[in-house]
User: What shape does this take?
Amino acid sequence: MFNALNEKLEVIFKSLKGKGYLKEDDIDVAMKEIRLALLEADVNFKVVKGFVQRVKEKAVGKEVLESLTPGQQVVKIVHDELRNLLGKDNEKIRIAPNPPTIIMMVGLHGSGKTTTSAKLAKYFKTQGRRVLMVAADLQRPAAIDQLITLGKQIDIPVFHSRQLKDPVKLCMEAVTDAKKEAREVVIVDTAGRLHIDDSLMEELKSVKETIEPWEVLFVADAMTGQDAVNIAGAFNEKIGIDGIILTKMDGDARGGAALSIREVTGRPIKFIGVGEKIDMLEQFYPERVASRILGMGDVISFIEKAQESFDQKEALALRDKILNERFTFDDLKEQLKKIRSMGPLENLLNMIPGFNKMKGINIDEKQFIKIEAIINSMTKQERENAQLINGSRKKRIAKGSGTEVVDINRLLKQYKEMKKMMKMFKGKKALKLSNLFSMK
Assistant: This one.
């Protein structure tokens, strides 16, 4: 996400940083280029106008133009204004003092509302909360079936009815059931349409007035750009929303919806969908996103993802294996699985500052699958002692994994290089994987 905008801004800032002294004319040229870059990223033109004006007012100040690093000062101003545009601070979903916390999901059909309801339910479940999902889209039987299927995947119950045709009555019964079952969070997946119409809005208003949700979250497809922003504004005006979840952010290279929607609606983005998998829903942090737009990476999010996949005991056990030269192919397979569970590899690497500047690096996640297949085709003894793997064993492993002997040779070479690197850490205090968890 934001790839196109990031590349354009990098060129603009490189020009500014290359000058030891900035004049107001230099700022004017940069602001015109930033304005064009934002418009090409599909950011709302009124939002662009206000943003550029605020940046320019601060950038032409005496303390900036006469500073030792005026170019860097301008970058900082742009970063701060981007953060303000995106919402300044992370805003969490509010939890009701008396359970259940009722969350009403609204949006047009096709925005990913039903899948996002399940993703949000999974998010709360990982926090240890007891969740109930409600299939309140009675216009579309497929939506009910979809939510039931998703509920089974994440082991969360779904309240539904094939007989009831009144969504208000269904939601009332669902809330009553949630109270009886001591459910802490109720997520209501409401009906959507392909377009905004009066009957949809009346139905949603009736549901909202009856169940009095603690939060109404509008789900929007980020790839629709300004359409998502305009629709969010209409929903906020007619129903009233408390927050926004932007889906398909991983497929949106421009980022116009994310950069416009808060300013236009006055409502915060609370989550973003960054992939199809059920756990690919992230809390939205304006400062981190602003840093990623400017190519500064997002190390904090990277560490948080690592913490989710690696627990401290496993990290310490792995450290001991490395220090005592007992790192086997089974250990390698386990670590690759954990890395894959953190999300798409390219997304992870883009969180590392400067990675996007490295050209010619191809991320092929199919290699993970190939390596796992090769390791699975080894015997227990071979996985523990790579020196046993001779020519005939390589042929057997290749045949069993559907690969070529050259692939086996490549993996063995990489494994030996890893072992050499690990030897360098032996006896050094530098290798402290547990340091990662001290940031919790």
In short: DSSP finds 20 helices and eight strands in the chain. Residues 103 and 215 are 5 Å apart (CA to CA). The radius of gyration is 26 Å.
